Amino acid sequence: MASIRRIAVNTGGGDAPGLNAVIRAVAISAANRGWECYGIREGFNGIFFPERYAEGGVVRLTRDAVRGIAHLGGTIIGTTNKGNPLHFPLRMPDGTVKEVDRSEEILEFFARKEIDALVSIGGDGSLTIADALAQKGLRVIGVPKTIDNDLDKTATTFGFDTAVAFATECLDRLHSTAQSHQRIMVVEVMGRYAGWIAMHAGISGGAHAILIPEIPFDIDKVAAKVRERDSQGRSYTLVMVAEGANPTDGQRAVLAPAEIGHAERLGGIGERVAKVLAERTGKDARTVVLGHLLRGGSPTTFDRLAALRFGAAAVRALDEGQSGIMVALGYRGVDYVPLAEVAGHMKAVPLDCDTLATGRDLGISFGD
Ligand code: F6P
């Protein structure tokens, strides 16, 4: 492989605490090898729409540009979860929207600017794009990011630990108010079609029922849990529900359907659960939706270190001549796994995992 002089980095999909730490590690590890590093604005928008950005769609990431950012939430180069370049929504003169593949424009951009490789930080959508670009000949290394922890072939993604820590703290705070008012408190958390955040925070924060997409729930079983607690003199119940949870007799709650280049938006299951539980138990119920609060704030030490390790490992991988791989957290350290083995493979909560068994052993209801 030709030697590297310039690399680019981008961030795609929902933001997650730790993105800036990856960017910092990539930029500094590149600078230490004598390579220039550039950041592409908002996914690939900086390439497609450079006129939108006063300082240019692609910015030089010098050491100064990445100073003091490892602890900051968000991403200094911006992100987007709209406009997948492989299925880009193009508005036609008659107002209809047509799907086009803009990946060739990305390859042309890299060739024209003599940028030798891309470090693409993202979740399943972004890593699927990264895989497609690698197959078309671009040198690409993927870095796994998502608060949802639903990416396969890595023990965890950065952002997850921070989201779980925050959700757990929220549960800690809700115990006292729920107990004081003898209420049911339903806490809805993000996670898309996986229940990782709900399960980890729910067990850690002492939820009495946890509803996750992997286990369709029977609301009567949850109501029975509330009554059981009442009969034992524990007249309040905390229910943790993942946004993608499904009732056995109904549908998952969707706020907005999928559009070209953008996945469906989930949300609203918490309010539904609270309403039915109030009806069936005669108790007061309130809902708290943690939503995008889970994506903000400083990364925990675990996420910060994972992000720095991933960023540095991505540059080492390029230096070793790797391409078409994702850096992943393995048992002994960072591993390389082919992007093709990650793209399109969601990691759901395994029904035989010990964390779930722990919840059951502690008497938590999973609504089944
Ligand atoms: O994938 C991260 C995530 O936060 C999901 O948990 C959630 O369903 C989705 O993104 C929300 O996306 P948006 O930023 O479009 O509201």
Termini Cα gap: 54 Å
Question: Mind describing the biggest β-sheet?
Answer: 7 strands, mixed
Query: Helix/strand/pairing class, anyone?
Result: alpha/beta
- In percent, how helical is the residue content? 25-40%
Mean pLDDT across every amino acid position: 97
Shape: elongated
| Strand element count | 15
SSE succession:
EHEHEEEHEHEHEHEHEEEHEHEEH
Ligand list? 6-O-phosphono-beta-D-fructofuranose
Percentage beta strand: 15-25%
Low-confidence stretches: none
Computed over alpha carbons, the radius of gyration is: 22 Å
Tell me the strand order in the biggest sheet.
Answer: 3-2-1-6-7-14-15
Query: Number of helical segments?
Result: 10
Describe the structure.
With 368 residues, this protein is α/β, with parallel strands linked by helices. 33% of the residues lie in helices and 18% in strands. A seven-stranded mixed β-sheet has the order 3-2-1-6-7-14-15, with helices on both faces. 6-O-phosphono-beta-D-fructofuranose (F6P) is lined by residues 14, 81, 123, 146-148, 190-192, 243, 265-266, 295. 6-O-phosphono-beta-D-fructofuranose is lined by residues 14, 81, 123, 146-148, 190-192, 243, 265-266, 295.
Topology, pairings included?
Layout: E1 6-11, H1 19-31, E2 36-40, H2 45-48, E3 58-60, E4 88-91, E5 97-100, H3 103-112, E6 117-122, H4 124-135, E7 140-144, H5 160-181, E8 184-189, H6 196-204, E9 209-211, H7 219-231, E10 237-242, E11 254-256, E12 265-266, H8 269-281, E13 285-289, H9 301-319, E14 325-329, E15 334-338, H10 354-361
The protein binds 6-O-phosphono-beta-D-fructofuranose.
Residues 14, 81, 123, 146-148, 190-192, 243, 265-266, 295 line the site of 6-O-phosphono-beta-D-fructofuranose (F6P).
